Amino acid sequence: MPIVHFNLNGKYVTVEVDGKELLVDTIRNRFLLTGTKKACGTDDCGACTVLVNNLAVRSCAYLTCMAEGTHVVTIEGLGSPDHLHPIQKAFIDASAVQCGYCTPGMIMTAFALLEENENPSDEEIRIALSGNLCRCTGYQKIIDAVKLAASRRMQTKNHTWEEVK
Amino acid sequence: METSFYHPTSLQDAINILGRNDNMVLVNGGSDVILNIVAKKIDPAGLVYLRDIQELNYIFEDDEYVHFGGNITFRQMLASPICQRIGGLRKAIEAVGSPAIRAVATPSGNIATAAPAADCATMLLALRAEVVLVSEDGERIIPQNEIYLGAYKTKIKENEIIKEIRFPKLKDRMGSGYVRISRRKAQDIAKIIVGATISLDEQARCNAATISLGALNSTAVRASSIENQLIGLEQDEAILYAENNFPIEAGLRDSYFKEYKKNVLCDAVAQAIKMAFLEAKGDK
Ligand SMILES: Cc1cc2nc3c(=O)[nH]c(=O)nc-3n(C[C@H](O)[C@H](O)[C@H](O)COP(=O)(O)OP(=O)(O)OC[C@H]3O[C@@H](n4cnc5c(N)ncnc54)[C@H](O)[C@@H]3O)c2cc1C
Ligand code: FES
Ligand code: FES
Description:
By secondary structure, chain A is of the alpha+beta class. Chain A is built from six helices and five strands. Chain A has helices at 23-30, 75-78, 86-93, 103-116, 122-128, 140-154, and strands at 3-8, 11-16, 49-52, 55-58, 71-73. In chain A, α3 crosses α6 (140-154). Chain B contains eleven helices and 14 strands. The model of chain B has no long low-confidence stretch (mean pLDDT 96).
């Protein structure tokens, strides 16, 4: 079986998987990182979004073998309950979480957007999140949360996440 | 069946892998093929991943053609000034799925899958694209309008790789247009897709046109019945003609949307033509 090497949330890992194995299954079942959700499993909802080399991709439509040599970041790599990432904090402060199932995918997608565009317009946020479905919030609070996170970072001296209190 | 996974880093390696092994499937962005694997529609002995082949990752134009390599993604195309200038192509690419799909998915996959409602492939048909295929047997070039055999079926052989897609450069006084009708703004399969190019003479009359239709037949098709009638017309005359003449090439298969498509298609064609005229006049 193929052996795959990649960096997962800052650590180099090696797994032996069938060529057909999905990245979402490797992350959840082998590394027990269950923050990444598998909802539709058909590339439609965005709940399984992770970063591969800083691009937001759907881990249910991405084979683990495709990740060879890449850097993969999941929601666990962004922050932890004790050290929330400012985007996670903004989602809580803006009440953008209800059942929470879509939230990891929303946050990973928002993170990728804010890496490319530090002060996106409403329209740009909506386009970036257009592949992420939420059945609970009605989306507006999610847009508000992304804007809140962006504005908090914009208020820091060097516009970095580390400086956001 | 256990499936092996290959990471060729050169086109020749990929060709050799396909030549020496049976039941190999190419993976580009994977947005179509992985769903087929998950749904157990295919069970390949091996997957051949094209993303690491640097020599397939290019976009450039010369005097004649715009060329893009076989593993260029939609995201890369949108970032390219060459594609940005071609409004119809830009709109068609922006319509594919969502940003996460466009980050990985490719026009090569869009053509090779041959879905009836393929956005980029329909626009490429209007741009008169050609597909450059390579295999152990050498290279051959097929015009895109000859590549389809039916829904999800093409003439691309199992051992062939799309090395390049290319289309004639849009000259001065040529413009492109694209219209898509769907229920949602993102991640929705189009109900109607229209691609268009218009070339103008010095008096701003059409002297050549292409119209392509998607989501109406089993494959994308050219609507030559309309194309031919636009010659000699000014913008308003061409729009009026399209509004009042149903393209005979539109198959309109029996479906829930048949009546809707019938009522809306002429307006969609007219809008695509208008966009192409405006782009040709430099009014983008
Ligand atoms: C949720 C969702 C939404 C979508 N929305 C749209 C949409 O709005 N519009 C649209 O047009 N499509 C849409 N698609 C379909 C898909 O994203 C496109 O068809 C895309 O262009 C496929 O490209 P890919 O690189 O991911 O192909 P892959 O899945 O990697 O490959 C598809 C097929 O093409 C073959 N192939 C790929 N590259 C080559 C090559 N270089 N040479 C030879 N064969 C090759 C593969 O073997 C496979 O058979 C959607 C898909 C999903 C899952
Ligand atoms: S679980 Fe991957 S897109 Fe829905
Ligand atoms: S919070 Fe429930 S799906 Fe978004």
